[in-house]
């Protein structure tokens, strides 16, 4: 069974090396999608052992994930796990996702920071996450505990033919929508929330969060 990790990255040259270095130890291949970075993200990832696919322009998180998952399938992946480039996710937690998928009874696994009390998610982020969970449930009919988690896994069957239609941060909720649309069998795995000053500086603020919510409403009623 071939495990492939996909890491979307935009201007993460200062953070991505240890992320890739840990990921290559737990998967047969690591694909980094350099999403139009203007720094050395791609070269740093390549030196750390990743296969790098580059977008000429920044397409956003959803676009990078679509490219990365397609690349993983082309490499012969049986299971694909996505994780962030800024150090919020540990390689050992990606292993938990792979192991849950390899049991064979689910198509999609979500790493949930809300099920692990050992993390350090700031209160405002925890509140925003719960609001996102509620909005995702109200729009798409599936209730999950951490709708905005970037650590997720798909079986080859679930990943094949995947056509992500959102380019931005709202792609996390699109995956939840696909649980219902594609009748995926799914599960959640507890993972710790890991926040550093760096990852907090890259995170989604209030106004971008509002824009993401509006895009979700548009997606629900337009398709």
Q: Give the H and E element order.
A: EHEHEHEHEHEHHEHH
Spans with pLDDT under 50 lasting ≥5 residues? none
Percent helix, as a range, is 40-55%
- Major sheet description: 7 strands, mixed
CATH first level: Alpha Beta
Name the CATH superfamily classification.
Spore Coat Polysaccharide Biosynthesis Protein SpsA, Chain A
Looking at the overall shape, the CATH architecture is: Alpha-Beta Complex
**How many structurally independent domains?**
1
Broad shape = globular
- For the largest sheet, list the strands in their spatial order: 3-2-1-4-6-5-7
Strand tally: 7
Q: Would you mind describing this structure in some detail?
A:
The chain has 223 residues and is α/β, with parallel strands linked by helices. The chain is built from nine helices and seven strands. Strands 3-2-1-4-6-5-7 form a seven-stranded mixed β-sheet, with helices on both faces. α1 (16-23) packs parallel to α2 (41-47), α5 (123-140) packs parallel to α7 (171-181) and α5 (123-140) runs parallel beside α9 (206-222).
Would you kindly provide a brief summary of this structure?
The protein is α/β, with parallel strands linked by helices and 223 residues long.
